[in-house]
Amino acid sequence: MVDNAVPSAGDRPVPAAARERWRRSIPTTTAGRGCECGACPSIDLVDERARTSKGGRSVVLSAEHPKASVLLFIDADRLSYLELAPHGDEAIDHFPSVAELSV
Q1: Residue spans per domain, the chain
Q2: b or e along 16-42 (b: 16 or more beta carbons within 10 Å of the residue's beta carbon)?
Q3: What pLDDT is recorded for position 88?
Q4: What is the residue-wise DSSP string for 54-77?
Q5: Angle CA(22)–CA(67)–CA(60) in degrees, nearest 5?
Q6: Across 36-43, average pLDDT
Q7: What does pTM read for this prediction?
Q8: Closest Cα to residue 94, out of 45, 42, 46?
Q9: pLDDT-above-90 percentage for the chain
């Protein structure tokens, strides 16, 4: 997602330097609390101090699956949330594999 996902329509392109900063944070980023809906795999992303970032300047990167969009939220220059947004009413309880995504 950090390397290949694209910004939301109308948003500015993401500079390579920003992607590199986010890539360096991946080893210390872990899954936090799951979505409260209980029907999807969306998760908070937390840093090495178990903090998540909300607010500040936001970037949303997206990749597509035939049945859902996968969205990576970056808030205040930190990975903050990974969301699966189904395209229909079918519940999807896991993230698709990278091979199943397109940008």
Answers
A1: 6-100
A2: eeebeebeebeeebeebeeeeeeebbb
A3: 79
A4: -SSSEEEEEEEETTEEEEEEEETT
A5: 25
A6: 84
A7: 0.87
A8: 42
A9: 49
Q: For residues 73 and 80, what is the distance between their CA atoms, to the nearest angstrom?
A: 6
Q: How many CA atoms lie within 13 A of 69 on its CB side?
A: 13
Query: CA 12, CA 28: separation in Å to the nearest integer?
Result: 27
Give me the numbers of helices (H) and strands (E) for the chain, helices first please: 1, 6
Question: Pick the residue with more confidence: 59 or 51?
Answer: 59
Task: Find the radius of gyration of the CA atoms of the chain.
Answer: 13
Predicted confidence band at 40 (pLDDT cuts at 50, 70, 90)?
confident
Amino acid identity at 81: Y
